[in-house]
Amino acid sequence: MKSALSAILAATVLASGCGPAKTDSESAAGAPAARVRLATATATEILLPIESAGTVRPRRTAQVAAKVMGSIEEMPVALGQHVRAGDIVARIAADEISARAAQARAQLNTAERDLERERNLLAKSASTAETVRGLEDRLSAAQAVAREAEDMLGYTTVRAPFDGTVSRKFADVGDLASPGMELVEVEEAGGFQVEAPIPDSVAGRLEAGAVLSVDVPDRGISFQGRVSELSSSADPAAHTVTAKIAVPSGIAIRSGEFARVTLNGAPVAAIMIPASAVATIGQMQRVFVAGPDGRASLRLVRTGGVRGDMVEVLSGIDSNERVVVSPSAGLRDGQALEIQP
Q: pTM of the predicted model, to two decimals?
């Protein structure tokens, strides 16, 4: 039994040693032609995407400030409160202004009575036209002083300039207000925009009305917005131009949130092939190229961005070379190709 087994093993060894083993190339060369479709690697120019960090801001905002000096006696608004145009946001106690307004009204009343009396006397020839003209001038001056005093008194009541939301408060009841001191900030209701710096290199190709992609990562929101404004001057330090992108209505975001704006950069040369021509094995990407001898040539490539059904090839393929589209799993390097239309 052992001798029979030894004879079989010896015969197997002899049979295997009768000739050299075939290599993969020789096996592919002897295989039947593979039916494939080809596509030509095309040299073109593509616009690389550029990202700019922007900030969500209201379309209109106002820092409401005091115009007179005095103690803040009332501030009937809170952060986040909605206000309408004309709503009171603060009252300032200014006794001096109130006293001045009362004095101006008293002087106006006196001037009106004096003028009326002299006109009656003039009608009876008991006064002169010159006296009446002088009283008329005094009345005009008193009216101007009264108007000014009333305006100043009106400034003690600070009102919202438009419909919006109180986004910040800079003062509170008891604080001393002075002319120019900011009291509250009001953001216009119902409208936001994204302000983003755009590099000089691409700002020249951007214009109002252009549509840009905007992403608000903290909220997981993405949308398309139109450029509503584009600054005519650039920042000399950062070499950027400020663009404002309108946020479509219905987008739930807040003022001050971070936003990422994506736009096309400068055109660069690129070679594009169908994405289906690239096969990924592990960390390697490979493509079969149709050689001048009508056989498949395996190439290792490095790809870039995908655009539709095309992919950019960074290395491994030259323009005008023909690649195999959707190669079969059995296609081998050196195998003959039968080109399908």
A: 0.56
